[in-house]
Design brief:
4-stranded mixed beta sheet
C-alpha cells in the first residue's frame, strides 16, 4: 500500500523531525510486483562500478556466489569481484527519477509525495567465480561431462585415449592438422566410448568444420607436454639429457619437443651435475600467495623471473603483475649478471 500524507507526517513525528525545516517533497521507496511480496529488509543496495552498471543496462546478468561459510563474490560473465558491506542512509543513490534538494528548491513544490518502485533479483550459487571463469578452468582441467556431472579422468586413462588417437592418425597417414571426427569414432568406438574419444580430441585439439565434415587440428605442444608428464610422473628426478632423448622418441613422428612446452609442469635444475629435471605442477602448489612462495623457495633458494613466472602467474589479480608479486613476497639480487629472487624470510 502507498503511504498517505498523514502516514508520512506520523513517521516524521516519531523520528522527532520538524516538517517545517524540511523540503516539501517526500520520496517513498516501494518494492514492485517483481519482489514477490518480499519486505524491504529482504533487499540490499548494490553499488557498482560504471562498467558493471553498463552490463546490466545492456541486459546482462550478475550473479552472487558463495557457500554459507564463505565470502560472497559477485560474478559477471567473465570476471569475479569481491563484495563489501557499507552503510548508507542516502536513498537518493538508488531511487530512479529522484530529484535532488537543489532541484526541488528551484521548483514550486507543494507538500507532495513521490512514489517510486525499485525491484531486484538475487541469485546465489556455490562456486565463487563467473560462468566463463568456471568453464575456462574446467577446460584447463580437461574435465568432461558424463551423465550431467563434471568429472576429471585419471591421467593414465586420458593418455590411453590419446595413444589410440595418435596411433590411428599414424596408421591412416593423416595430417595432425586434419583429423576427421566421424572416422575416429568409427575406428575407435569398439575400443572406448565414443564420447571419451571426442573428449580426448577436444582436450588436445581444436574443432573446425570443412565442407560439412567435422575435423580436429591436434595441438603438438599439448601432446608433447602430456608425454613429458607421463615420463616424469614415474621418476623423482630425471637426467635432463636422457629425458630429452626419451621424450622426443615418445611423441608422434613429426612433432618436436621443447622445454618451453613444460612451463608450469616441470622444473630444470641447471646447477646440478648432471643437469636434472623433475615434475612440478602448478596445481600441486598451495593456493595461498605466501604459502605458494614458501613452497617454491623451499624447493629452490633463488629463482629467475623466467623460471618462477609460470608458477605464480595464476596468483596475479586483474590489475596485478608478476613483478608486483615478486616485489611483495621476495627480494631481488644479481647473480652472475642475472637478476634472481629469494625469500624475504627464512624458510624452514
Amino acid at each position: 500500500m502507498k503511504r498517505t500524507r498523514d502516514e508520512v507526517d506520523a513517521t516524521l513525528q516519531i523520528a522527532k523531525l520538524n516538517a517545517a525545516e524540511l523540503l516539501p517533497a517526500v520520496h517513498c521507496l516501494g518494492f514492485g510486483p517483481g519482489a514477490s511480496g518480499a519486505a524491504a529488509g529482504d533487499f540490499c543496495l548494490l553499488e557498482l562500478e560504471p562498467t558493471l552498471c553498463q552490463q546490466l543496462e545492456d541486459g546482462h546478468s550478475l550473479v552472487i556466489r558463495g557457500d554459507k561459510d564463505e565470502q560472497a563474490v559477485l560474478c559477471s560473465k567473465d570476471k569475479t569481484y569481491d563484495l563489501k558491506i557499507a552503510d548508507t542512509s542516502n536513498m537518493l543513490l538508488f531511487i530512479p527519477g529522484c530529484k535532488t534538494p537543489d532541484q526541488l528548491k528551484k521548483e514550486d513544490s507543494h507538500c507532495n509525495i513521490i512514489h517510486t518502485e525499485y525491484t531486484t533479483e538475487d541469485l546465489l550459487d556455490q562456486i565463487q567465480a563467473s560462468e566463463e571463469e568456471i568453464m575456462t578452468q574446467l577446460q584447463v582441467l580437461n574435465a568432461c561431462k558424463i551423465g550431467g556431472y563434471w568429472r576429471i579422468l585419471e591421467f593414465d586413462y586420458e593418455m590411453k585415449l590419446l595413444n589410440h588417437v595418435t596411433q590411428l592418425v599414424d596408421s591412416e597417414s593423416w595430417s595432425f592438422g586434419k583429423v576427421p571426427l566421424n572416422t575416429c569414432l568409427q575406428e575407435l568406438g569398439p575400443l572406448e566410448p565414443e564420447e571419451m574419444i571426442e573428449h580426448c580430441l577436444k582436450c588436445y585439439g581444436k574443432k573446425y568444420v570443412d565442407e560439412g565434415e567435422v575435423y580436429f587440428e591436434l595441438d603438438a605442444d599439448k601432446i608433447c607436454r602430456a608425454a613429458a608428464r607421463m615420463l616424469l610422473q614415474n621418476a623423482v628426478k630425471f637426467n635432463l639429457a636422457e629425458f630429452q632423448e626419451v621424450w622426443q622418441q615418445s611423441v608422434p613422428e613429426g612433432m618436436v619437443t621443447s622445454l618451453d612446452q613444460l612451463k608450469g609442469l616441470a622444473l630444470v635444475d641447471r646447477h646440478s651435475r648432471p643437469e636434472i629435471i623433475f615434475l612440478l605442477k602448478v596445481d600441486d602448489l598451495p593456493e595461498d600467495n605466501q604459502e605458494r612462495f614458501n613452497s617454491l623457495f623451499s624447493l629452490r633458494e633463488k629463482w629467475t623471473e623466467e623460471d618462477i613466472a609460470p608458477y605464480i602467474q595464476d596468483l596475479c589479480g586483474e590489475k596485478q603483475t608478476i613483478g608486483a608479486l615478486l616485489t611483495k613476497y621476495s627480494r631481488s639480487s644479481m647473480q652472475n649478471g642475472v637478476k634472481v629472487y629469494n625469500s624475504r624470510r627464512p624458510i624452514s
